[in-house]
Amino acid sequence: MKEILLLNGPNLNLLGTREPSVYGTVTLQDIERQVQSVCDPHGVTVKAYQSNHEGALVDAIHEAMNTASGIIFNPGAYTHTSVALRDAIAGVGLPMIEVHISNVHKRESFRHTSLLAPVSFGQIVGLGSLGYSLAAQALLDHIYKEEKHGENTKN
Ligand code: CA2
């Protein structure tokens, strides 16, 4: 069975418990369920992982290389700082879509730059928890298109 990795970075375990005006009232567990319900009709399993530690996120990306077909990733504040996460995504070569709950472009200027954006095939920002469900749809579409392209270019 196909699997995707739903990866969340630092502080996103607090979703739904603090700062509802910025991050909403939906919990991370709710989001994990939402993403699984998008993937269920496609027979795709969602492996969900959250960590507050950069190295643990790098390890999860490496593990996904052998198990997953793609990654939905909200790297949290590491979005703006982490060369290590960018290198990990580039290194495993899996398709990755970046999600941000808040509209980072309406916030402080240090949130306007993503080191991960150049290694993602797309970004969804500012749509709250809905962004994760849309990201799941986009990732499945991307994976199926890649598979089709592979079949068509086989000789
Ligand atoms: O908008 C996003 O999804 C962010 O990735 C969230 C990060 C922030 O550093 C990025 O610039 C944008 C912060 C996650 C903090 O999550 C919390 C959730 C609830 C309560 C407090 C923090």
TrEMBL record:
Pfam family name, one: DHquinase_II
Organism (species): Pontibacillus salicampi
Enzyme class: lyase
Active site as annotated: 23, 100
GO molecular function per UniProt: 3-dehydroquinate dehydratase activity
Stated name of the protein: 3-dehydroquinate dehydratase
Subunit structure: Homododecamer.
Family: Belongs to the type-II 3-dehydroquinase family.
Site (Transition state stabilizer): 18
NCBIfam families: aroQ, PRK05395.1-2, PRK05395.1-3, PRK05395.1-4
Associated pathway: Metabolic intermediate biosynthesis; chorismate biosynthesis; chorismate from D-erythrose 4-phosphate and phosphoenolpyruvate: step 3/7
Keywords: Amino-acid biosynthesis, Aromatic amino acid biosynthesis, Lyase
Primary role: Catalyzes a trans-dehydration via an enolate intermediate.
Binding locations of substrate: 74, 80, 87, 101-102, 111
Reactions mediated catalytically: 3-dehydroquinate = 3-dehydroshikimate + H2O
Enzyme Commission code: 4.2.1.10
